[in-house]
Design goal:
Radius of gyration of chain B: 28 Å
Oligomer: heterodimer
Number of helices of chain A: 6
Helix content of chain A: 40-55%
Strand order of the largest sheet of chain B: 14-13-25-24-23-15-16
Largest interface: A-B, 13 and 15 residues
Number of strands of chain A: 4
Distance between the termini of chain A: 23 Å
Distance between the termini of chain B: 62 Å
Helix content of chain B: 25-40%
CATH class of the largest domain in chain A: Alpha Beta
Number of helices of chain B: 18
Order of helices and strands of chain A: HHHHEHEEEH
Radius of gyration of chain A: 18 Å
Number of domains of chain A: 2
Largest sheet of chain A: 4 strands, mixed
Structural class of chain A: alpha+beta
Largest sheet of chain B: 7 strands, mixed
Shape of chain B: globular
Strand content of chain B: 15-25%
CATH topology of one domain in chain B: Rossmann fold
CATH topology of the largest domain in chain A: Glutaredoxin
CATH architecture of one domain in chain B: 3-Layer(aba) Sandwich
Strand order of the largest sheet of chain A: 2-1-3-4
């Protein structure tokens, strides 16, 4: 991905160049372009007068901030006990099987990234997963297929 | 400082106020184990090894961060404290590969010591650790994250001592790793290879390539000496075994460098010295340099020096005693002697500074000097001062490598921009070097009232040479020339300039200069030297031999005195 310098400066201008603004800047940039490029982190480091290693350390600490390129859509599947009891294991296997990847990986076409996550607070409708920021509950293997197809179709349209 | 009274392990003690529990314990001989703590670094309180019980305080306290106060009652080895330490160690051992028998640090490892101390004889928890890649992209040392306990000593050393900020942590949890910059291989990072991280690592996560598996602490010899690679005069801890150089460490607490070294002092002399040693005296017979004895070589040299015109030229890589003897020898034969290398311009004003003054300064002016290239430790000290809020002003140095740390970068003509700030500064240090021009000397003069001046002497022991009355001297026609070279690298210009005379060279290594010489007299290298040098502050610092002198090699001072005697 090409680093959008104008966008980076826009975000920095919005949050200011105080050290305290670092997390907000990184989160904002990560959200806008999906992940932080090395160039983006270099620019942030220079502007905030911080060592690049510190910027990277903060960015890599938070799961909401990505330092590596992810798939177009990110699935976060709940791996905690309430979802597990409600049939989570079948969904876990269905996701890996249908996408052809393991948790923590991205499909070769760069469309899906599959991540486990901790409790999303939606235990009443478990098993639960997020696709990007959209929650899906009461999952069954069939429902998972529909959801995956829906995103594929949406992308094709 | 007032004294406070407290109780530690049922012993009542009087100690200085303002210390941590750990410092107090150390002072009174109570040993509290630590992993993340290092006396040269800020206290961290992360590893939980130093947890102690303090009566009346809730929970256990980290001794390395908890201030000792009047009336405290501290117990360091209670059942609760010991159990917690054991628990922490069990977790550390389950998190990564800590199979000590394969690790070069085994026997000298702080983690292993703690495990033995608290009787960890088996693994309590499963070891589901993932395997990390080893980073061997740096020339002098290797990082093995599998041995890392994430104590962050290396990160703090890089930031606080070297002021370089290359290292930090990536991620979190069990997969956390120490990384460089934006997670690039160390060899491609902003690392300056000062080796401070390597020295403070408590485990085998940072490995010195040369000394690894070369001998444990109980097998090696430590010798304190002074670095001869530039005029800073850093104190070195030279580690040897079986007359072999294993490693060089810094000495925390020893002035002027307080443990910080640079790549030129710590690694290059051990790893990168490719020149061939001169082992015995050599004399030119039938156009060829041939080995001969000292008894044969010296009278011949003495005779040559005593008859006809002679000139003495010295590089700056030798001891004060050798310079003195060199000066006296030429005084005796009535011929000129001086230095091959340039020296600092004379300011004619201002008070001298010490190297630690740089750290205490809140305003530093750099003029005519490139400390990050020529006197690296001073350069790192300037960066450290900048980290602590000091203003850095570059004068007449638009392209200086310190420019990204400088608030002001002005020409000599714009000195008034610096002068405006000076009244508000508490401690001003001017760092100047051989590049200072006459214009610069005039421009800096107004600072003389308030500032102290640190001259970065370009010669390694240039101050020692100056004390012996030696000044830069252009090679002039002479029938005999004596060159006191030591282990100094030879400049191409010298070889040309010295053509055409009967040339005697005192040198440690073969070089284009020794090839042209008529007599070569072998000299010691830095690790074999005894005596003294004078550093750029003017401090006379001792040299102690870490290695025995090879049998054919003699100290220059001794040889020069012998020559003077032979001349009579």
């Amino acid at each position: 991905m090409k680093t959008n310098l104008t966008q980076i400066h826009e975000v920095i201008n919005q949050h200011g160049t105080n050290r305290e603004a670092l997390v907000e800047i990184l989160r904002d940039l990560s959200q806008r372009s999906g992940y932080l490029t090395k160039e983006a982190m270099e620019v942030v480091a220079t502007q905030l007068q911080l060592p690049p290693s510190e910027v990277f350390s903060v960015a890599s600490f938070y799961t909401k901030i990505n330092v590596e390129q992810l798939g177009k859509h990110v699935i976060k599947f709940c791996e905690d006990a309430p979802c597990h009891i409600a049939g989570g294991r079948e969904i876990w296997e269905a996701l890996e099987h249908k996408l052809g990847i393991q948790f923590g990986e991205t499909t070769t076409d760069g469309f899906w990234t599959l991540w486990p996550t901790s409790c999303l607070g939606l235990c009443a409708v478990g098993p639960v997963m997020l696709v990007d920021d959209e929650p899906y509950g009461n999952l069954t293997p069939e429902k998972v297929t529909d959801i995956l197809n829906h995103y594929r179709a949406g992308d094709a349209a | 400082m007032s004294k406070i009274k407290l109780t530690i392990n049922d012993k009542e003690v009087m100690v200085e106020e303002g210390q941590t529990i750990l410092e107090v314990a150390k002072e009174v001989g109570v040993d509290i184990p630590v992993l993340c703590h290092h006396p040269a670094l800020t206290n961290w309180g992360a590893c939980r090894m130093c947890l102690v019980e303090v009566a009346g305080m809730r929970g256990l306290q980290t001794a390395c961060t908890c201030p000792a106060t009047e009336g405290m009652n501290i117990q360091t080895e209670t059942e609760q404290a010991v159990n917690v330490r054991k628990f922490v160690l069990e977790l550390l051992f389950s998190e990564r590969n800590h199979y000590c028998m394969f690790c070069q640090m085994s026997g000298d490892c702080e983690l292993q010591d703690a495990a033995y101390r608290y009787g960890l004889e088996h693994f309590t928890y499963p070891r589901p650790y993932e395997k990390f890649e080893i980073d061997a992209s740096r020339k002098y040392f290797i990082q093995d994250p599998n041995r890392c306990i994430l104590c962050s000593r290396c990160i703090r050393a890089c930031a606080e001592i070297a002021a370089n900020h290359t290292l930090n942590l990536k991620g979190r949890g069990a997969g956390t790793r120490v990384i460089a910059d934006l997670d690039v291989p160390f060899g491609e990072s902003t690392c300056i290879e000062c080796g401070t991280c390597l020295q403070v690592c408590p485990t085998g996560a940072l490995i010195d390539v040369r000394s690894a598996y070369g001998g444990r602490e109980k097998d090696v010899t430590h010798t304190q000496t002074t670095c001869l690679q530039c005029s800073v005069g850093c104190q070195l801890d030279v580690v040897t075994r079986y007359e072999r150089l294993l490693r060089v460490d810094g000495i925390f607490g020893a002035a002027p460098n307080d443990g910080l070294l640079c790549v030129k002092g710590r690694f290059e002399p051990l790893y990168d010295e490719e020149r061939q040693r001169v082992q015995t005296p050599l004399v030119r017979k039938d156009g060829q340099l041939q080995e001969c004895s000292w008894e044969e070589a010296l009278p011949w040299v003495a005779e040559k020096l005593a008859t006809g015109t002679a000139q003495g030229l010295a590089a700056t890589a030798t001891t004060n005693a050798a310079f003195q003897a060199f000066g006296k020898l030429f005084e005796k034969i009535g011929d000129p002697a001086g230095l091959l290398c340039g020296t600092l311009p004379e300011l004619g004003y201002g008070k001298g500074a010490t190297i630690p003054d740089v750290l205490a300064a809140d305003y530093i002016v750099v003029a005519g000097a490139k400390p990050l290239t020529t006197h690296k430790v001073v350069g790192y000290f300037i960066k450290r001062a900048a980290d602590n809020g000091a203003t850095i002003a570059l004068v007449g140095e638009p392209e200086n490598e310190l420019r990204s740390y400088a608030q002001l970068n002005v020409s000599y003509a714009e000195m008034d921009k610096v002068s405006v700030d000076i009244p508000d500064a508490a401690a001003v240090v001017v760092v100047y070097g051989a590049g200072l021009t006459a214009e610069g000397i005039a421009a800096l003069k107004p600072l003389a009232e308030k500032a102290v001046f640190l001259g970065l002497e370009p010669g390694r022991n240039g101050r020692g040479a100056a004390a012996a009355g030696l000044a830069p001297l252009a090679p002039a026609p002479a029938e005999t020339r004596l060159v006191l070279l030591g282990e100094h690298p030879v400049k191409a210009a010298w070889v040309e300039q010295l053509n055409g005379a009967f040339t005697v060279v005192q040198a440690s290594y073969h070089s284009p200069l020794t090839e042209k010489a008529d007599v070569v007299l072998p000299t010691p290298i830095w690790a074999e030297r005894s005596g003294h040098v004078t550093n750029l502050e003017g401090q006379v610092l001792p040299l102690q031999a870490a290695l025995e002198l090879p049998s054919g090699v003699r100290d220059e001072a001794e040889v020069l005195v012998a020559l003077a005697k032979l001349i009579g």
